[in-house]
Amino acid sequence: MAPPISDQTFRVPRPPLPRNAVLLGFVASAAVVAVTVVRVEEWTGIIILDVACVLGLVWLCALTGHRVVYWVSKRKQRLHVGPTGLCLEQGAFRQRVAWDSITQVEIRREADVIVKLDVYTAQGRELELQEFERLPELLSLVQAGIPPTVPVKQA
């Protein structure tokens, strides 16, 4: 019999800031400043405030485009792996899957890299695990936890 699985937690890592977002911010800021300098004859506090607000909006759009989806959907998503099974946690929501209820595990790879694990029970697909850190380690823990008769398929 295999030794019991120790408790481990996996998270969805924060996406890196793409370089093109910073470049977009600088280009758009330069365009806003250039157009404003050419068109404005008299600089007042209101015009400076307007330009500052437009520049703030430009940087808000440039820097948060892809991060908003992460922040809303995955920022508090965790997967706990332990001796009794898996527990997917997102905020107050928890979905538990016991090792003995798992009927199939499906591995999806792209260019020999694991990108997704699907965990099935008798009710169908229970967990769709993707974007988690250390997916190969997670797969080995799942394989150690499930009964040996459960098929692990490559998709």
- Evaluate the radius of gyration: 24 Å
**Main sheet, how many strands, which sense, barrel?**
4 strands, antiparallel
From the N-terminal CA to the C-terminal CA, the straight-line distance is: 29 Å
CATH superfamily of the largest domain, by name, is Pleckstrin-homology domain (PH domain)/Phosphotyrosine-binding domain (PTB)
Q: What's the total count of β strands? A: 8
The fold-level CATH name of the largest domain is PH-domain like
Describe the structure.
With 155 residues, the chain is of the alpha+beta class. The protein folds into two domains: 19-65; 78-154, Pleckstrin-homology domain (PH domain)/Phosphotyrosine-binding domain (PTB) (PH-domain like). The chain is 38% helix and 32% strand. The chain has a four-stranded antiparallel beta sheet, covered by helices on one side. It is elongated.
Q: How are the SSEs ordered, and which strands pair?
A:
Elements: E1 8-11, H1 19-39, H2 45-64, H3 67-73, E2 77-81, E3 85-90, E4 93-98, E5 102-110, E6 113-121, E7 124-130, H4 135-145, E8 152-154
